[in-house]
Amino acid sequence: MSKVSQSFRHFAEATARYSGKPGAFLCAAGMIVVWAATGPLFGFGDTWQLVINTGTTIITFMMVFLIQNSQNRDSAALQIKLDELIRATAAHNGLLDVENLDEDALERIRENYRKLGARLSDEAKTAASGHQQAEATEEEAEACEEMEEIDQELRDQRKAEASDEPSTDGAGKAEGKPAETPSTTG
So where are the chain's domains? Predict the structure, then answer.
């Protein structure tokens, strides 16, 4: 990582950390009070209004980039941690690349887990009769079919991305990309 990049990262982290503290809010509120109190001195004129408008616009503009940098880094770190937990446990490894799916596929996965959650909740509330067991088995089969379809979409997407990669090194993996973990169901 370049020195400029590292310096920006440290600056962005510190800015995001301190801008979220009560002291930063009190400082901003104090500046507004001072600005408002100076209104009579400047006759509430255009220059007086321009000062606060310009100041807040510049601060907001800069904060967008600093906070977005911190958010991107935090999201990437969190995603890596979640991927490692999925990979290291008996969880469904097909979900490792779920962040790369389109909105429709994500909604199908959400609905799938809602169904599974509702079924587990119903099972916990009542003793399972023969009819309820049949419904639960049918819902579970539907959920498994849905997950298989999603797994196939993920495999197809990985193949398409692999065919788009320009070159590989001697080990057979794409440059700058980590080796893929084989997908298994848990």
Answer: 3-88, 93-163
